[in-house]
Design brief:
Number of helices: 6
Radius of gyration: 17 Å
Helix content: 25-40%
Distance between the termini: 50 Å
Number of strands: 7
Strand content: 15-25%
Largest sheet: 7 strands, parallel
């Protein structure tokens, strides 16, 4: 029987790359997204428009999944968001929305689907180097990702003895649509702080997710893939 996976934010960037990797492994993938409508003729790839900052949207998505499968064998908690504002300019609503998407919605997904997750499954999070090393511009984003890291490590206890593993991939800067808006001057500054002198490709980050899917002994790990960030 075909295994089922969920990839939040699974239609672009890292999420899309992870979804393709899981499909290549034979998974049917439910991919959440926001924005313009995404259509698929591939029965292995099921895009579902979900605003993960909305509890009603999220619970409707969970009912869709429960109605379509008896087990969820892999959950990739990838969706996140940022609001590029300084510390004193960030509003309560903006802070809450960032936490809701990156942390709260993923906690709810795993809690509500807990009984459908068979032994030996995989739960993966997309963290961020900014959750380990403070970044100059967006405090709130770093805090949400630090919370993602903590959620991943704490969930290990909930799955103890089942063979289900929980890990977080912690990328540095990656060539995704998010980064296209960055001014060239800022990109060059980041390159200088990274020993490899460039951003990661999406495929290089996806390889870390693949490693965690394939290796049943990697558990409770924060796997940094950052090219040697802040080496000087």
């Amino acid at each position: 029987m075909m295994k089922t996976a969920i990839v939040t934010g699974g239609t672009s960037g890292i999420g899309a790359g992870v979804a393709r990797m899981l499909m290549d492994k034979g998974y049917r993938v439910f991919a959440t997204y926001v924005g313009d409508t995404v259509k698929s003729d591939d029965p292995q790839f099921i895009p579902v428009k979900v605003d993960q900052s909305s509890r009603s949207d999220l619970y409707a998505f969970l009912e869709t999944v429960k109605g379509a499968t008896e087990s969820v064998d892999c959950i990739v908690c990838n969706a996140g968001m940022t609001v590029r504002k300084g510390f004193t300019e960030m509003t309560d609503g903006e802070w809450d929305k960032m936490m809701e998407v990156a942390v709260n919605s993923h906690y709810i997904i795993i809690r509500e689907l807990f009984s459908l997750i068979p032994a030996g499954s995989r739960i993966l999070f997309t963290g961020s180097q900014m959750g380990l090393d403070p970044h100059a511009t967006v405090l709130a984003y770093g805090v949400t990702k630090a919370a993602v890291h903590a959620l991943a490590k704490n969930l290990v206890k909930e799955f103890e003895g089942t063979g289900t593993t929980v890990n977080a991939i912690v990328p540095g800067f990656v060539e995704t649509p998010w980064q296209k808006e960055k001014p060239e001057e800022i990109k060059q500054n980041i390159y200088r702080k990274t020993a490899i002198h460039r951003f990661a490709s999406v495929d290089e980050i996806v390889d870390a997710f693949r490693f965690c899917v394939d290796n049943p002994f990697v558990n409770g790990s924060l796997i940094e893939v950052n090219g040697g960030y802040s080496y000087k």
